[in-house]
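Project standup — Tuesday

K.O.: blocked on the structure for the chain from last sprint. Re-posting the sequence here as requested.
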Amino acid sequence: AKAADVYWQGGETLPISRQLHADNRHRLVKNMGVEEGLVLVQGGTHNHRADTDHEILFRQESNFHYLFGVPMEDCYGAIDVKTGESTLFVPHLPDSYRVWFGSIPSKEELRSKYAVDRVMYTEELAGFVKSFDPKVLYVYGGVNSDSGLSGTGATFEGISAYRVDTGLLRAALEETRVVKSPQEIEILRFANKVSSAAHKEVMRQCKPGMMEYQLEAIFCHHVYMHGGMRLLAYSAICGSGPNSAVLHYGHGGAPNDRQMGEGDLVLNDMGGEYYCYASDITCTYPVNGKFSETQSAVYEAVLEAKDSV
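H.V.: unblocked you, prediction finished:
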């Protein structure tokens, strides 16, 4: 593939052909099992920190990334179920954007880069749907069984004029995403390879007297420095002593801020994320590098239970 068609963070990081997303769209349409209609998905929106001009670092909504691979905010994507034809809708940015954020790619540049059939502006979305006149408009809906939170479906002014199905797309997306393609497996292996190396580096540097957040810092540095992973897959959990028993320790109210002592165990649950594909690795060991008899007995019992499942 040409350089423009590849996501790559340089160096030893993994190049990824954006054809991945065209393949994902094809698999989705096949799994939907219907003859016609229009799939409409909405990407993530940009957010500010309270009422300041600071924009929170954007990370694309996972389903939108899976289908289109576009890291921009406030986008939409449409897929013709009958033909598989894809349309990307992007914001029509003002000229002032160039001063603050850099160049604005043309629609043709975006079409070529992201391997879609057509690029339009979001202001043209309602007119596009009207011209398409779908018998059914498939949007994302329902409740995530893991989090218990509701999915956010695509919407636009005038959507009430159409027959909208909020169930089939979610079911088909879940079925499609759970079976990874060979390229997706390669990405996951890369994310886990770099994250495993980062855990080893944390283990090498860990010692009594350090703060838990210093372990997080070592991990974040390694996955970004050696894997181009600016983001972690989730908030880092570096729980030592009593904190190791808190499932989601490390959140804003308990930010890995305990000083580790002699005789403590530390549980590190951290994973880097590459191209929105996650790793998730947890390991527990003594801060001083040597298990006590009691710590060893508990560790071996937990390990045996894990291996027996």
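K.O.: great, moving the ticket to review. The two ends are 42 Å apart (CA to CA). The mean pLDDT is 96.
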